[in-house]
């Protein structure tokens, strides 16, 4: 599977990563090589293999349903660019 | 004229009634000061790790069992990636490929009492996002992340509903199940149940589905019905005018009673799901599932059948009383005190519901307790008071005048007079005071007398200040008037 310039720009936009035209061109080559390797892997018969969800062979531990965290709003908001009335302020978003 | 059929599928987000969040120990209590319940995990601070809340898992499993669903041994959490300021991590931790609840079914009851089954495609656990406040904060948007990380169970139906009424019946059935199970408070006004509605139309008889629109932001039973009605009309008109329905997300505006297309960017739906590396697969063995099953209360459909078969209530009464757990428990408590299911059902659905509706109260807020209402019904059944006096007593209980029906009956002197001698004395007085009416009555034809006797009954009841037993007054009056 070949990757095109537009695919790279689209992936970069989805991840909100800024790329220059030169960088994008470089990634077209890099990503194409990675995909070629994936193509090679596709040749293996994985019919009866259960997809691996996690490399650790363990299951999720659960935690009791208890409130253990209390407000540290002032500390968290100390590094926020703008706050008012306890709210974080962000550039206006319109739906 | 083309006949159209509506096809509806629903995605219902139920906020689970846990104390703490799905992946952190922050509180989920509603209405706190902004951002006082958003901890480092909820904010997506660097280096934090999520740990799954065992109660959220138990609640999801109970829901699955209540809808006869398969509970897979393994389920997985995945990341749904998108950027929005109220989603601090840049992804929502959710489930897609292997959700916690597999296919199931819900029985819905329509207005005419008939039932049908709606298939559940699956239900999955996920975290809620925060809230964006678009009021003007110096030209900026305010973000409150208290809700971020609140556990949600998203219940996805198959496109099995064919009318707005069926969709409403389905949501009501889900609402009853989650509130019975105690896994959600079901408070739609506070957003504890939110619906996305998928609607399409197709010519009647056509097997293939039409193109659907997804309507978001539908947060009450009434809005579901209105949003669907509007959307169906819009789609049919569009097609009949030669247009085509576009697959899109629309927003319901309850103020204008219409749906509007949302401005969406092309890549808006490219969520790039992948397994969350911070969370391991969740495994639930048979013993765990059996344990959860053992903890489940009687469910609405079981209760409805028991009310019908064991208590002898009509299908309609049983359906209404079993529709909410609070209502069913209140009714059963009244029945236990007064010993008569039919009377208890009549009072709960009649006088009590009328008063609750008028004052816009939930049954849990009723000023009249089940104990008090049961005590009142007892006094009607043993003829201590008349049905008319009972309504007065109920109102006095409602207004909090005394704390039992007996105390009110005593204080107001409402005890019914059943002593024949006393009633006869009053009747004789009324007859003596009404010579004209008595003469008219006695001249009248037998067929007209039934109506005319009402005047005398009224006078006697007035003389007794409503305490005479009306049946006795009636028969004694008839004897005396017909004697002449």
From TrEMBL, chain A:
Q: What is the top-level taxon of the source organism?
A: Bacteria
What Pfam family is a match, any one?
A: GatC
Catalysed reaction(s) here are: L-glutamyl-tRNA(Gln) + L-glutamine + ATP + H2O = L-glutaminyl-tRNA(Gln) + L-glutamate + ADP + phosphate + H(+); L-aspartyl-tRNA(Asn) + L-glutamine + ATP + H2O = L-asparaginyl-tRNA(Asn) + L-glutamate + ADP + phosphate + 2 H(+)
Which EC number(s) does the record attach to this protein?
A: 6.3.5.-
Carries keyword Manganese?
A: no
Q: Tell me which UniProt keywords the record has, alphabetically.
A: ATP-binding, Ligase, Nucleotide-binding, Protein biosynthesis
The UniProt entry, under Gene3D superfamilies, shows: Glu-tRNAGln amidotransferase C subunit, N-terminal domain (1.10.20.60)
This chain's function reads:
Allows the formation of correctly charged Asn-tRNA(Asn) or Gln-tRNA(Gln) through the transamidation of misacylated Asp-tRNA(Asn) or Glu-tRNA(Gln) in organisms which lack either or both of asparaginyl-tRNA or glutaminyl-tRNA synthetases. The reaction takes place in the presence of glutamine and ATP through an activated phospho-Asp-tRNA(Asn) or phospho-Glu-tRNA(Gln).
For this protein, the record's NCBIfam families field holds:
gatC
Q: Which family is this sequence assigned to?
A: Belongs to the GatC family.
Listed under subunit, the entry gives: Heterotrimer of A, B and C subunits.
Name recorded for this polypeptide: Aspartyl/glutamyl-tRNA(Asn/Gln) amidotransferase subunit C
